[in-house]
Amino acid sequence: MKQVNDEKWWKKAVIYQIYPRSFQDSNGDGIGDLNGIICRLDYLENLGIDAIWLSPVCKSPQDDNGYDISDYQDIDPMFGSIEDMERLIQEAKKHHIRIIMDLVLNHSSDEHRWFQEARKSRENPYHDYYIWRDGEEGCPPNEMRACFGGSAWEWVPEIKQYYFHQFSVKQPDLNWENPKVRREIYNMIDWWIKKGAGGFRLDVIDQIAKEPDKGITANGPRLHEFIREMSREVFRGKDLITVGEAWGATPELAKLYSNPDDSEFSMVFQFEHIVLDQEEGKEKWDLAPLPFLKLKEILNRWQMELSGRGWNSLFWNNHDLPRIVSRWGNDGEYRVESAKMLAILLHGMQGTPYIYQGEELGMTNALYAIEDYRDIETRNMYRERLEKGYDAADIIASIHAKGRDNARTPMQWNASENAGFTQGIPWLRVNPNYKEINAASQLHDENSVFACYKKLIRLRKTWDVFVDGTFRMLLEDDENFFAYQRENAFRKLLVICNFFGCTLEYPLEADWENMELLIGNYDSIERPEIFRPYEARMYISHMEA
Ligand code: GLC
Ligand code: CA
Q1: Would you say 356 and 407 are in contact if contact means Cβ atoms under 8 Å apart?
Q2: Could you give the number of structural domains in the chain?
Q3: pLDDT at residue 6 tops 80
Q4: Residues near 472 by Cβ (< 8 Å), separated by ≥ 6?
Q5: For a tag site, which of 253, 369, 381, 427 has the least CB within 10 Å?
Q6: pLDDT, average across residues 166-189
Q7: Ligand 1 centre from 53 Cα, in Å?
Q8: pLDDT tens for residues 288-314?
Q9: Average pLDDT, stretch 402-408?
Q10: Cα 182 to middle of ligand 1, angstroms
Q11: Which residues contact 524 (CB under 8 A, 6 or more apart)?
């Protein structure tokens, strides 16, 4: 049976996320920029990716590294100009790569013209672009807290009102209830489509339909109404990929978001699997070991539920998350093996894989002292927890494990000073392990993590079973193996991963002789049923005609 959008290019695609300030600096100011990305398009084409999700490059005071936009139709001078952006889109196209823009629509910067106007008076035509409540200084409308610490309400003495912000005080929430706001946003998106954007990632999109009086932030009652309107007005019928970031998505909701009838988005980023290693009901900083069976159960559920009724995003990493090899792999003795195992595990599943810059090299977390971190979330949390009486060493341990700067250290291109990222002083320290872990040393090594990612991307494009094969989890209750099958009318994939550091025997029957090994992470195999530390293999078998 054909699905409605079976032909969508993005079902076969692999997306690469660039965090521009940390990717490649071209002018020596220590900050990555658009011209830097253009210089690295050959590298990306070689890897084989289809699209770049570009974290925000629009004009911004950089309070939250660009997730606080002051002009949606201009590029921040730190990154380049509109002309550079147009050139990036054109040049990327020559390398068969599309550019996915990051749309931050839940909030703007407080330095956006709209907010500057809005705060002037209650009668200002832009006032209602944001969310205001009356009150008295020192008595915010309610107890809601902002994600980056402090109250979610900020007092503006000139007009004696509070405005609402889910993130920093410099990120006032936009009022989606106001149709004028929505219209401005749609026009702006349309403008980027005309400039050649190949798609959009929609930042914290599940938080746009907030109802602060009821304490509602995510999944507000009008959320899907707004998304459908946006889709109808700007996305529908165009050759775009759209991916919503939705921390609050369940498989049920994801079927709405990624409905094959194109009424909303192509897919969503969901986080159910990625928040497992924290104490239940607490914050990400409250560390807990990964419950492995739970990880399997969740990924299995998402595979099963969305099959034919939606579409998954497959990812371990992004700019907000720690490095997966340090997190759920082993960044010491088995760094290479475990990085490849995690890649093989993820890339065999149904969905669109995302690679976050440096993941394809097996880049690791950075273990810095507090002064070396730049992230607003990390710095605020450190201060708040110290005030609350937490032990400084414990806070640092949490930051080493979960801090967002782990993912934001500069890309490690080669073994020269500052890893070839900049001729100047990098805005965030380079991870000291760059002499060992860098792109130059991996590009021509067929056993490198890079080679493994490159091959996985090629395999996805070779065999349809990656895209349309049904998913079946094997060994659901096994404490060590992550194993599954994919199957369509012509072929079967078998993916077997030893998720941990001991040697194990695979407990199921397998027709080792008659399967073809597509990819693995050890050189030679003596006894196929034996899986060494972090060993992963992907086999294919072809049905008889
Ligand atoms: C998203 C972004 C994150 C940002 C936040 C506020 O979660 O990924 O980096 O801080 O939204 O825009
Ligand atoms: Ca620069």
Answers
A1: yes
A2: 3
A3: no
A4: 484, 485, 486, 487
A5: 369
A6: 98
A7: 14
A8: 999 999 999 999 999 999 999 999 999
A9: 98
A10: 20
A11: none
Whether 446 is a known active-site residue: answer no
Is the Cβ atom of 67 under 6 angstroms away from ligand 1?
A: yes
Which of 108, 320, 406 has most ligand 1 atoms within 8 Å of CB, for mutation? Answer: 320
- 411 and 525, same structural domain? no
Measured in Å, residue 199 CA sits from the centre of ligand 1 at: 18
> Of these residues, 76, 154, 206, 245, which one is catalytic?
245
Query: What is the 3-state secondary structure of 49-105?
Result: CCEEEECCCEECCCCCCCCCCCEEEEECCCCCCHHHHHHHHHHHHHCCCEEEEEECC
- Name the least confident of 4-8, 66-70, 299-303, 403-407: 4-8
Question: Please, what is the average pLDDT of the chain?
Answer: 97
Q: What is the percent of the chain where pLDDT is above 90?
A: 98
Q: Strands of 273-408 (E only): list them.
A: 313-314, 352-356
Are 118 and 103 contained in the same domain? no
DSSP codes, 290-310: --HHHHHHHHHHHHHHHTTTS
Q: Give the number of other Cβ atoms within 10 Å of residue 17's Cβ.
A: 24
- pLDDT of residue 4 exceeding 90, the answer is no
* Residue 54 token pair: 């570009």
What pLDDT score does 544 carry? 79
CATH code for the domain in which residue 493 is found: 2.60.40.1180
The pTM (predicted TM-score) of the whole model is 0.97
Question: pLDDT at residue 2 above 70?
Answer: no
Provide the token pair at 456.
């996985």
User: For residue 457, is it within any domain?
Assistant: no
Which residue owns the Cα nearest ligand 1 atom 2?
A: 203
Average pLDDT, integer, range 231-236: 97
Q: Is 203 a catalytic residue?
A: yes
